[in-house]
Amino acid sequence: MWDGVPRAEAERRTGRWCAGVLPRAGGEIPWRRHGPVRLGSPMTTARPRLEMITADNVLDACRLEVAPEQRRFVSPVAQSLAEAYVHPDLAWPRLICDGDRAVGFVMAYFDLPFDFDAGVPDAPPRSGLWRLAVAAGEQGRGYGRFAVGAVNEEIRRRGGTVSTVTWKPGEGGPEEFYLGLGYRKRGLTDDGEYLGDLDLAAA
Q1: Is 176 inside any structural domain?
Q2: Domain with 57 in it: what CATH number?
Q3: Which of 14, 21, 48, 59 has its CA 20 to 30 A from that of 96?
């Protein structure tokens, strides 16, 4: 599925192309490590979980691929991890796992000022989804919804009250998915992407 932060926002924050957010030590949900994960196993009955990206699972993350028609809406996981590596203060990447297999990837950002709010006095910085990719063979099983919910819980834990996402318009894109989760479309960014937000106090 999909990219989430306008390029211009990241450039303004960092001076180069990146986006998203990774908390420092002590600033994250205590997801347990479960060792290496596999791709392509049958769905389990265990609740999905998020895993930190480690030496044990980084290749599983990089092997994840969305459906061919979705590739124009989201960058490869390897690109996301490269951006997270060079900007560890701006990226919160996690592997979505079910049992012992990888089923998707999500990356969030926190407290990022948006040019979209330039005309709003004292507008607070935004937090939300930057990247979301569910493996082609794993879609339709609730993994994307779970990942969005997990990111939103982390935003709440940090004191945030609004979750933000941007998406590229087009047939086969993520608009229906995000609107179905309760995000409200607010308008177009300077990058030509739609911005949506969700009031976490009301969700």
Answers
A1: no
A2: 3.40.630.30
A3: 14
Number of structural domains in the chain = 1
d(CA 200, CA 7): 25
Calculate ∠ Cα 92-73-200, nearest 5°: 50
Q: Would you state the pLDDT for residue 24?
A: 30
- DSSP string over 53-80: --TTTHHHHHH----GGGGGGS--HHHH
pLDDT of residue 79: 96
Q: Which domain holds residue 76?
A: 7-24+45-159
What is the length of the chain?
A: 203
Band the pLDDT of 20: cuts 50, 70, 90.
very low
3-state secondary structure of 41: coil
pLDDT tens string 109-157: 999 889 899 888 888 999 999 999 999 999 999 999 999 999 999 999 9
- In degrees, rounded to 5, the angle at the alpha carbon of residue 29 between the alpha carbons of residues 198 and 19 is 55
Phi and psi based region of residue 136 (left: phi greater than 0; alpha: psi -120 to 50; beta: remaining): alpha
* DSSP letters for 163-202: EEEEE--STTSSHHHHHHTT-EEEEE-TTS-EEEEEETTT
80 to each of 46, 62, 105, 195, how far by Cα in Å? 27, 9, 10, 20
Predicted local confidence at residue 49, as pLDDT: 97
